[in-house]
Every structure is written in C-alpha cells, then in structure tokens.
Amino acid sequence: MRTAVEPVEVRRPSAVRALTTLLAVTAAATVVVELLNYWYAPEQEFGLAVRTGWAMLRSLGFLALIGHVRRGRVVARPFGLILAVTTVFAVGRLVVPRAGVPALPGLLGFAVLTALCVAVVVLLYRSETVRAHLVRHRKGLVVEGGTISWREVTPKRPQANAWLLTARVAAFTYSPLTLVPALVATGAVLDGRVVAVPALLLWFGAGIGVSYAVLFCTAFLLRGRAWARRALVVVTVGVLALDLPLCWWLLGTDGLVRDGAPLVTAAALCLWSLHRATRGPGTSAPPR
User: How does pLDDT run across 59-93, given as a tens digit for each residue?
Assistant: First the structure.
C-alpha cells in the first residue's frame, strides 16, 4: 500500500529512455573505437597516446550528458551537440595515419561512432518529446520575499537562452582543445627542440588562462550583457591566433589539421551562436 508521503516514480517518455540508452552505447563505442585505432596504428607514439587518451575521456562526457538528460536540463541540447561534433573530429583525426591507408577496423568503428553521434543530435534537436522533456534549468540560491531557497533558476532572457547556452558550451572547449596539442608538443621539446620551451610554456599558460576568461565572459553573457559577447569574440579570435600558429610550428601540418580543426569548429559554432542570439526574438530559436 502506498502512502501519501511516498514519492511517485514518474516514467520517462520512450524517446528519452531511447536517448539515454543511445548515449550509453556511444560512450562505450568511443572507448572501443579509440582502442582499435591505437592498436592498429603503425606508430604508437607519445602524441597518439595523448590524443587517444583525450578522445577516450569523452566517454565521461557522454555519461555526464546522460545525467543532464535524465534530469531534463536545457543545457543537455547544446552540450550534446558540442560533444557529438568534437567527438567525431577527435576520433576522425586518429583514424587516418600519417602515411598509408587507414586500417579497416578503424574505419568501420569510425563510421559506427559517427552514425551514433548523428543519431544523438537528431534525437536532441528533432524529437518533440525530448524537446518537451529538456526544459529544466540549473538550480541555485534564490532570494525572494526575504527568504533564501535552493531552486531552479530561470534565465532572464529565455528567447536567446538556447543560442547563448550553445555559445557558452562551445567556448568552454577552448581550454582542453588548446592544452591537448600543447601536451603533444612536449614530446617534440623533449626530443631536442629546447628553443621551443618558452613558446610551450606560453601555450600551457594560455590554455589555462583562457578557461578563466571564458568563465568570466559567459557568466555575464547569460545575463544579456552586450560587452560580454564582444569580449567572448575577442577571446575566440585570440585563441585561434595563438593556437593555430603554434600547432603548425611545433606539430607541423599534420598537427595543424589534427588539433587545429576541432578548435576551429568549436570557435565557428560559438561565433555562429553569438550571431544568432543577437538577431532578435524572431530568429533566436534553438539550433536545429
């Protein structure tokens, strides 16, 4: 017999349950595909190990996304979009070797993982059931009527909220996408390129500093401050201006493609989201 004080378990819609299952499968597939790529790689060097480890960490991102979906958080949609796009880039850059033809198991694994990521984005942005489920915002301290409570905080500008959240999530990837190639370049410095030590230290410092700059800008971005948008654009351009030349100098053309392309993609998505968020109420709907 159920009493009145017992919590009633609400069954999630089938589309939401399918999405969480798909995310779990994608997380497992990320690990499997990366291990296959590393196993069949002609040269299991330091840089490949770093990039493989970073790509495998994305499986934790999919697990975190499952938590956001289960809680019905609005942030799940932009988070899932960024995670799916950057995962495809992170895995794709490791499938193609520096010389020769990619291994067939790696290609098949990459095709399967790409299909899973596409399916995740389709469910997040095309399913009306999932859209209706992902309506909750983060919780925080709210002072109202002389009382302090811990409850959901609704953004002040809900019409532009989806695009601003997408820009925010994309900008938060700048720091790891900068630090990973810097860590890869450490191997080149250890091989005798001592002259590159100051540039490498600058690279690491910029990678850490950009995380604080993005955190500061996005804190005011969601509050509708116009200067925060301009500041985030400056940060984006600055990251590209520093990271891409260093990738080319210390890692060569191969490193520029493998490590620069994901950063350029994240920056383009951030700038596009900022552009859409400022076009007015009529065009500020969530990205499709």
Answer: 889 999 999 999 888 888 889 998 998 888 878 77
How far is the C-alpha of 23 from the C-alpha of 25, rounded, in Å?
Answer: 5
Instruction: Supply the pLDDT for residue 284.
Output: 41
Length of the chain in residues, anyone? 288
CA distance 41 to 268: 30
Domain membership flag for residue 183 = yes
Q: What is the pTM of this model?
A: 0.74
Domain tally, the chain: 2
Q: What is the DSSP letter of 6?
A: S
Give yes or no: residues 42 and 147 share one domain. Answer: yes
pLDDT tens for residues 97-142? 666 667 787 788 889 999 999 999 999 998 899 988 887 756 555 5
CA distance 95 to 110: 7
Closest listed residue to residue 48, CA positions, set 103, 7, 1, 90: 90
Helix (H, G, I), strand (E, B) or coil at 145: coil
Q: Which residues are registered as beta bridge partners of 144?
A: 147
Query: In this structure, are strands 139-144 and 147-152 parallel, antiparallel, or unpaired?
Result: antiparallel
- The encoded tokens of residue 180 equal 């990973």
Question: What is the DSSP code (8-state) at residue 41?
Answer: -
Task: Determine how many CB atoms are found less than 10 A away from the CB of residue 154.
Answer: 11
Note whether 38 and 149 are same-domain residues.
yes
Q: Which residues contact 256 (CB under 8 A, 6 or more apart)?
A: 244, 247, 248
